[in-house]
Design goal:
The protein has 218 residues and is α/β, with parallel strands linked by helices. It folds into 2 domains: 150 residues, Rossmann fold, CATH 3.40.50.1000; 58 residues. Helices cover 40% and strands 15% of the residues. It has 9 helices and 8 strands. Helix 1 crosses helix 2 and helix 1 crosses helix 4. The longest helix is centred in the N-terminal third of the chain and has 16 residues. The protein is elongated and about 55 Å long.
């Protein structure tokens, strides 16, 4: 799809499963926990954790019982590890193209501040961003209008776009505010994969893309 970008164009992105696969964060966290608990034989534990997760078993309950740990400690290890994650192909090209046209880039993401900002730092995109809205920091989650109004308050613009993946909650607010909404279709690895349940008019974006190579910044 073509997007004509000028000084007052604001293109806002979701983070998890939009700029990278959230499953990679989970795998990164599992590896970090396995290394901490079994430094000399971490791969076996990591393999077990992944297998339990994919079998819909409670990984943290298993770890807590085997290693006599409180669940809160494991959750903290999961949320606060240094993530090893990578951007989807084409994301940096799109970011660079937007900035070359003097457009603005924002992030609106749900989650905990420390965790989400660690992801952004790990992805190496901080210098491209003009505004970051994390739900924990403003006290509301999507689809609350406040999360998107916070972008409007922090970046003055005439046209706003939102690129995200989760039909359940991502597009209700930007649609209400008159933004142009774009859904990145699940590549088969998304954490949330029940989009078929949320295809009423208020949940739908105005356009779907397969990947970031579908963008043409004019």
């Amino acid at each position: 799809m073509d997007i004509r970008v000028v000084d007052d164009t604001v293109i806002v992105f979701d983070l998890d499963d939009t700029l990278y696969n959230e499953l990679d964060f989970l795998k990164s966290a599992f590896q970090s926990i396995a290394l901490a608990l079994e430094p000399n034989n971490w791969k076996l534990l990591y393999s077990k954790m992944l297998s339990l997760y994919r079998s819909n078993d409670n990984v943290f309950e298993f770890i807590a019982n085997v290693y006599n740990l409180e669940l809160e400690i494991l959750i903290d290890m999961y949320r606060n590890h240094k993530p090893n994650i990578q951007l989807f192909d084409g994301v940096l090209d799109v970011f660079k193209a937007i900035k070359s046209k003097n457009g603005k880039i924002g992030i609106v993401t749900d989650g905990r501040s420390k965790t989400q900002r660690a992801k952004i730092d790990s992805l190496g995109i901080l210098d491209y961003l003009d505004s970051i809205i994390v739900s924990e920091e403003i006290g509301s989650d999507k689809p609350c209008l406040a999360n998107f109004q916070a972008i409007e308050n922090s970046i003055a613009g005439k046209s706003y776009y939102y690129v995200a993946d989760n039909l359940k909650k991502d597009f209700i607010a930007p649609n209400t505010l008159g933004w142009y909404s774009i859904a990145l279709i699940d590549n088969g690895m998304n954490i949330h994969y029940d989009s078929h349940r949320h295809m009423s008019v208020q949940h739908l974006p105005q356009e779907f893309i397969m990947d970031f190579k579908d963008f043409k910044i004019l």
